[in-house]
Amino acid sequence: MMVFTASQQEIEIEPMPFAKGGEGAVHKILSPGTLQSFCVKLYYDKYRTAERRQKIEYMVGNPPPGLNSRVYMVCWPSDVVFDTDNPTEKKFLGFLMPAAWQDNTLLYGLCLPTSPASKPWLSTKFDRKTSLGQESRLKLIVNIASAVHSIHASKHYVFVDMKPQNILLTADAKIAIVDLDSIQIADKKKVLFGAKVLTPEYMPPEASAIQLEKDCVPEHWDQFSLAVVFYQVLFGLHPYMASFKGGYADIATPREAIKHGLFVHGSKRHHIHALPPPHQAFEGLDAKLKSLFKRAFDIGFRHPKLRPSAAEWGETIHGLLVPMGKRRNSESFLAPHTQALLEHRIRNIQSILKHGVDSL
């Protein structure tokens, strides 16, 4: 199957996609060889709109800096794709983007109580029952925070639909963020292109007061979603997952609990009827991390602007990781030269957030 870029470059793609989503499918590139590290997303017919084309063209022309490092990548659109190279007849199909790291899997597998058997390394390198596995999950969070920070730093983009299903990881903790075409684009709080996709269990309490079509979604929306993802990575369940009593006894979903500010370790925890056992590990968490989660979910319920940013998550966890590395002389998730690099950069968090935490 042949498609063409805006500059009339011919691309041959595999007819069968290797991944499918709600709005389109992703195809591997067969030729030219110079694009082997890229892939093509083709929208389904009803999503090939003029507005969608304009949004992709804007993203292609305005990429934020720092989209890629040795340990994270943001699969940002790099060119628009059409059905022909004839400028008067071409029809919008989708876009060209960097392909994610090889041998990846969805981060969602790490957000479950038990990792899926399809990727054995999920349950070995990221075992919550071992100190090395716990440390590996923290390093993974730093890399995710680094990637998110690279987008937020531009002050033009908000993910809106941040969730583990849109993040891929590898055995050596490299991560890739995908499905960026659903992002909100704004300039000076004026929405240029709104977000179209939402996932209820990752939406903040204030979401019901925001109209996506006209209101500018603030960065602290993403900060809530990000904290949910991080909690799931560390503990294997949603931070609002519990059964409640009294006036909250009828709450049956995380989304309903979010609306009422029922973070299981927050100021309303006395309303909990039964707490799933995985939540108990929160008590063993470092006090600094506990504070970040409480700001994101409990304090942030009334004061969203006080939620920790991606940069603060990265800075805090990096500050915890370096002493861990010094104490461990056995096999580490970091190569020795990388550990030395991290120790050297401990006082320069902006550099860490730019490059992430290097892996094996």
Write out key terms for the chains shown.
Kinase-like_dom_sf; Protein kinase domain-containing protein; 2 domains; ATP binding; 6-stranded antiparallel barrel; 17% strand; Transferase(Phosphotransferase), domain 1; 4-stranded mixed beta sheet; Ser_Thr_protein_kinase; 360 residues; globular; alpha+beta; single chain
- Reading the helices and strands in chain order gives EEEEEHEEEEHHEEEEEHEHEHHHH
What count of helical segments does DSSP give?
A: 9
Our estimate of the beta-strand percent is 15-25%
Task: Give the termini distance in whole angstroms.
Answer: 38 Å
Give the helix proportion (percent range): 25-40%
Largest sheet, strands/sense/barrel:
6 strands, antiparallel, barrel
Please give the CATH architecture of the largest domain.
Orthogonal Bundle
Strand arrangement within the widest β-sheet reads 1-2-4-5-8-7
Query: How many domains make up the 3D coordinates?
Result: 2
Structural class designation: alpha+beta
Can you tell me the residue ranges where pLDDT is under 50 for at least 5 consecutive residues? 329-350
Shape estimate: globular
CATH topology of the largest domain: Transferase(Phosphotransferase), domain 1
What's the rounded overall pLDDT mean? 89
CATH domain class name of the largest domain: Mainly Alpha
Q: Looking at this structure, what is the CATH superfamily of the largest domain?
A: Transferase(Phosphotransferase) domain 1
According to DSSP, the number of beta strands is 16
User: From the alpha-carbon coordinates, what is the Rg to the nearest angstrom?
Assistant: 21 Å
